[in-house]
Amino acid sequence: MSLSYLVRRLLLMLLTIFVALTFSFILIRSLPGDPAERYYGDPRLPQEIKDEIKASFGLDKPVMMQYFIFLGNAFRGDLGVSFTYCQKVVPVIVSRLPWTLILTVIPTILSMLVALNTGVYIAFNRGKFLDRFMRFFAFSLNAIPTFWLALLMVMGLGFYAGWFPLQGMYDPLLQSGWQRLWSVIQHAFLPWLTLFIISTPAFSIQVRNLALNILGEDFIVTARAKGLVQSEIRRRHVLRNSLGPLFSFLTLRIAGLVGGAVLIETIFSWKGMGLLVLEASRNSDYPLLQATVLMTIVLVIIANFSADLLQAAFDPRVRYG
Amino acid sequence: MKRTLFLLLLLIFFSSLFASYMNVAVIGEIRSLNPYFLNSTAERQVIGYIYETLLSTENGKTVGLMAESWEVDLPNRVMHVTLKDQLFHDGKPVTAQDVAFSYNLTVQKRLPMGPVLAYFIRAEAVSERQVDLYFRVLNASVLSFVPMAIPVIPQHLWADIESPRDFPNTTNPVGSGSMMFNNLTPQTLTLDSFHEHPDAPKNIDGIVFHMVQDETMGFLGLVKGDYDYLYWNLDPSLASQLLSNPGRYPDIHVATTHGESVYVMLFNHRQAPTSDVHFRKAIQDALNYPEIVQKVFRDYAGLPYYGILPKTASHVVDEALGIPQQDLEKAKQALAASGYDGSTLKILCFSSKEYMDMGEYIKLYLSKIGVKVELDVKGHESVMAEMKKGNFDMVLTSFSLGFHPEMLYYYLHSSRGILQDGQVSGFNYGGYNDPDMDAILDRIWTTFSEDELKESFFDLQARIKQTVPMLPLCVPLQLEAYSTRNFDGWLVSETEGVFNTQTLQNVTPK
User: Fold this and answer.
1) Is A265 in contact with A292 (CB distance < 8 Å)?
2) Are the C-beta atoms of A285 and A291 separated by less than 8 Å?
3) What pLDDT is attached to residue A68?
4) pLDDT tens digits for B381-435?
5) Which of A278, B78, B276, B415 could in theory staple to B338 by disulfide, Cβ–Cβ 3.0 to 4.6 A?
């Protein structure tokens, strides 16, 4: 991967972010009313007070000037103040992001590890009963709506069995760090299990298909001709060559989950990014909504870039430039 | 020495083990504890435990909360207030300076309190415990609103806050309410009992408010024992299941008290046929109110009075006016007298179940007298946008009138229904314009005598019955679910429900 390619990719990333910022500015301004309306909207307010409030939001300035002020602030990391949190939106997002990462990264990585082994294993048993059964099982699980499975988990393991808390992230009355960590694990278990069950079959089928492609390659025939045993072929050739494309899939999936775990977060009352986006749109908190959307766009761009780098790192055949 | 220290540590350890916190589920988020910027129902529900106002209402009457006494100087538009002897949660005394600071901050920083900015000028501390409030406009309604809306905050903590709009107040909110802040996490708010306050809970250490996303999960938590009280009105079908089968969940109880919100149908008075009183009366006579109550609310609602006000506005409600009843013949006659041309009208309604169900029943009843209607179901924001534009024939909505019946001024006074730049300038969305009604509403606003107020409200309700500016449909009951699994001593008050000051002082851990 050449340096000029990296510079080009970085510039392209910046351009995409700039376009996203511009679109979000236009979108917010084209909505009925303005961001300060909730402060001066009361019909009983005298006009001079209304004008004063609008001016304090900079809404008395020409739109182009408002746009440049917005861009300047955005590039300084200031995406405005949330109406509902009464604070800058960036710290709000930063406080929520780790919770979503805890929720999504762990089951995704675990399901990938399981899928890698099961996917390759069933690829080696193509057409046999195990392959047919696993595919049927995977497609059936894939057809289950996430929210339904999550509710089943809550009802079965949380409510009736009473093994896990129904919702929340930890017990707020616990003072010690270790107790709190254990409490987080207890609370996270059901959402983790749900995401694991939902993700693993899809990953397994993905790995199986990848592995089947690899099994048809010439170097596998060579490896067999060399007399390598099945387990060696699986480990050294099939697994390793599956990692590159899988990593791209994984990074994009995690980036998608950051803004997309809304259902799981809602059902388990897990205060992550998904719920934040939902809240922002429910409350017409435009600065927060704008910032969360921008954050998701930036994450997807970065994930895409990282995926390319990982693919190149794992597969020597991949060269960019 | 070592032994004492050990015993002390042991005591602290065991007291933390046996700390008794009541667990209360609230719907939605508590994101900020800035009392001037409350954005969710949950924030409004909890903030009153931390911060207090000068006055409050109790059974429809104004009572002092932080104010020991108050006098109104009407000609000079001044209110003289004497404060009770109280402390903030950090131990500092509440002074007249703090009150003046809190009130002046609202005006100086243009905080989002519309009526306050419109009617209030400034506050001045006269002595350590006396403060004068100066108003631009002073009437009974302003007095019943402003001193009940502005929270009193400690000047020593807020004086340096440059922009209250950007201040979430989530690290150390200090007020003078019955409970003090312990901690706020993304999912819970923990408040401790503030024992210096006369209304503080006596037998529990505090309350943990859990933010939940939906009612079903909250209910499961109540049954499982995670929560002791659900801070929302229970769904009537769930209440019905619980009450009809009490043995299934023996610890769960439902407190049923009178509601203060009235479901109404608004008419657009700017256009025919809804501007015609005969047409409105025809609709009033066509509806089967007991059936709506039974089918939509499973009987957990009261029938409305002609005068709209619910039973909870007991000091001014005129029950003698009676309850509207279905009379299809009378409805057909009224319809014939109106100029209705048989066109299809739209009923705008929110997309929640009870509104849609009510809409369907109303559509059915109106079809029996030959009025064609269609339901126009939309989300909350869209319905509000259409209402603000005055863009509807009829709309189903609800008004909270039990504790503040004077709010009818905003819904019915002609000055509140003027269309300006395509937007209604107040809450009289239908543009009802009746000089007689305006005169009565003006009287309500300017009277300070209880007898005159009652008389004016009686006139108002009689006028509503006569002209039907809006149609009362029903008054849903307040249905609160609580559990006796962890705490005993819940007390149900007819006006305040079960989660009231008496309950908090009376409950004891099991």
Assistant:
1) no
2) no
3) 87
4) 789 889 988 999 999 999 988 888 888 988 999 988 988 878 887 889 999 999 9
5) B276
Angle CA A156–A159–A164, to nearest 5: 90
Q: What is the model's pLDDT at position A220?
A: 82
Q: Are B480 and B255 in contact (CB under 8 A)?
A: yes
Rounded mean pLDDT of A131-135? 85
CB contacts, 8 Å: B226 with chain A: 165-166
Report which residue type is found at B200. A
Phi, psi of B110, rounded to the nearest 5 degrees: 50, 50
Closest Cα partner for B68 from B90, B96, B49, B92?
Answer: B96
Residue B366, both tokens: 């109106």
CA distances from B155 to B96, B106, B152, B402 (A): 10, 13, 9, 34
Model confidence band, residue B15 (pLDDT cutoffs 50, 70, 90): very low
pLDDT beyond 60 at B7:
no
User: Which candidate, B258, B256, B255, B240, places its Cα nearest to that of B298?
Assistant: B240
- Reported pTM: 0.83
CA distance B2 to B124: 55
Q: Please give, rounded to a whole number of angstroms, the shortest distance from the CA of B216 to a CA of chain A.
A: 10
Q: Which residues of B touch A85 (CB under 8 A)?
A: 31-32, 168
Distance CA B6, CA B16 (A): 15
Q: What's the distance, CA A168 to chain centroid?
A: 20
The closest of B253, B231, B227, B254 to B21, measured between CA atoms, is B227
Q: Which helix (H) or strand (E) holds B131?
A: strand B130-135
Instruction: Name which of B484, B438, B437, B425 is nearest B464 in CA terms.
Output: B437
Mean pLDDT (whole number) for A1-14: 78
**Phi (first) and psi of residue B336, to 5 degrees:** -65, -35
Alpha carbon distance B162, A111 (integer Å) = 50
Q: Are the beta carbons of B210 and A168 separated by less than 8 Å? A: yes
Burial status of residue A34 (CB atoms within 10 A of its CB: 0-12, 13-18, 19 or more): middle
Average pLDDT over residues B268-282: 94
| Model pLDDT for residues A135-163, shown as the tens digit of each residue | 888 888 878 888 889 999 999 999 999 89
Round to whole Å and give the CA distance between A52 and A68.
22
At B333, the pLDDT band (50, 70, 90 cuts) reads: very high
Query: What local confidence, expressed as pLDDT, does residue B17 receive?
Result: 45
* Cβ atoms within 10 Å, residue B363: 15
φ, ψ of residue A114 in degrees (nearest 5): -65, -45
Please name the helix (run of DSSP H) or strand (run of DSSP E) that holds residue B130, with its range, or none: strand B130-135
**Residue contact B112–A39, C-beta within 8 A:** yes
Tell me how far apart the alpha carbons of residues B481 and B499 are, in angstroms, rounded to a whole number. Answer: 10
- Report ipTM (2 d.p.): 0.77
Q: Which of A44, A59, A102, A186 to mutate to test the interface with B (most CBs of B within 10 A)?
A: A44
> Can the peptide bond before residue B273 be classed as cis, meaning omega within 30 degrees of 0?
yes
* Radius of gyration over every alpha carbon of chain B, rounded to an integer in angstroms: 25
The structure tokens listed for B125 are 């501390």
Amino acid letter, residue B466: Q
Q: How far is the C-alpha of B194 from the C-alpha of B119, rounded, in Å?
A: 34
Per-residue pLDDT reduced to its tens digit, B80-128: 999 999 999 999 999 999 999 999 998 888 777 766 777 888 999 999 9
Q: Which residues contact B162 (CB under 8 A, 6 or more apart)?
A: none
- Indicate the helix (H) or strand (E) that contains B230: strand B229-230
pLDDT of A5 > 70? The answer is yes
